[in-house]
Amino acid sequence: MTTTNLSFQLTDTKELPTALNWLDGHFSEAGADAGVNADLKQLLNAQVQDVFSHHAHEPRSVEMHVELELDRGQVLLRLIDNGQPYNPLSNGLSAKNQGGASKSCSCGAVLIQELTDAQSYRRRHEHNVLELTRHFLPG
What we know:
By secondary structure, the protein is α+β, with helices and mostly antiparallel strands. It is built from three helices and five strands. The chain has one domain (4-135): 2-Layer Sandwich (Heat Shock Protein 90), CATH 3.30.565. Helix 1 (16-29) runs antiparallel to helix 2 and helix 2 (34-54) packs antiparallel against helix 3.
């Protein structure tokens, strides 16, 4: 199996539409159908917006590096930013009360849970690192 590695850097949310259009063909190469492609783009858009929004008031400019590992039937999105510590998974991703309803759960965390099969966050060398994996049947 061949893995395709791609990466790009964003310094502003205005750069995102161009990046998402560029990714269309690459998601298709991994076998993603139109629905999976749309899910991945929605997820990436939401996380980029979330990170830049969260870090909007920081004194220094926040940059985000996006890495993708594309295998047939799998996409790993790795989002790395140089902002203050921020774990989008800690915003109630799996917080359920006894009745099964979510407790004040972040919309971003819910989206991550719905659109990915595996998620992880870590702080490494003054950077936030969020990894999101999506598996699918290649088309």
